[in-house]
Design brief:
By secondary structure, this protein is α/β, with parallel strands linked by helices. It has a single domain, classed as 3-Layer(aba) Sandwich (Rossmann fold). 33% of the residues lie in helices and 20% in strands. The chain has a six-stranded mixed sheet, covered by helices on one side. Helix 1 links the parallel strand 2 and strand 3. The chain is globular and about 45 Å long.
């Protein structure tokens, strides 16, 4: 499932790219898609929002011309459901355990590490991982994950505004 808020305009036309990852039919695994949809509803200027399944090669293609990329996905690392992780891909490696319960065959962590090796990471790449509870077939988020999704929408919107203000000040 893919969606573009700004038609088919190239990513390079937008200072910020948000990629929500997930599967709408696997319970909490849909959280990245839900965050992306809520951000689309905000109609944030200078932001492209993509909904994706999380295939690593596609991620690398989307972010190849981007300046700032924010990725949101469901994870299972053993923490309490609803826990929000924010990782800067330039400051640390993304733990592969974040994707171990995912259906992504070439995971986000794999894509980031390959892009790092090839010197093709975007200048700014942030990953929000939302600790999830259920990955079984079904529609709808668990209450903990739903609350975390709302929190991540707020955090990402704030992060985008801060980034855009900085870019404006640098001009």
């Amino acid at each position: 499932m893919q969606g573009f808020t700004n038609s088919q305009i190239p990513v390079s036309e937008f200072p910020v790219l948000v990629i929500g990852i997930g599967n709408h039919y696997r319970s909490d695994d849909a959280v990245g898609l839900i965050v992306a949809r809520k951000l689309k509803e905000k109609n944030l200027s200078h932001v492209m929002v993509i909904e994706a399944r999380g295939e690593g090669a596609a991620l690398m293609e989307w972010w190849k011309d981007a300046n700032t990329v924010i990725v949101v996905d469901a994870i299972r690392s053993g923490m309490k459901p609803g826990t929000i992780h924010r990782l800067d891909a330039h400051a640390q490696a993304i733990p592969t355990t974040f994707s171990s319960y995912s259906t992504h065959s070439f995971s986000i962590a794999d894509a980031i590490e390959l892009a790092r090796t090839l010197n093709r990471l975007p200048p700014c790449l942030i990953v929000y991982g939302i600790e999830s509870k259920y990955f079984e077939p079904g529609i709808g988020l668990s209450p903990e994950v739903e609350q975390a999704a709302h929190d991540v929408v707020h955090r990402v919107a704030q992060e985008i505004q801060t980034k855009l203000q900085k870019l404006k000040a640098d001009c």
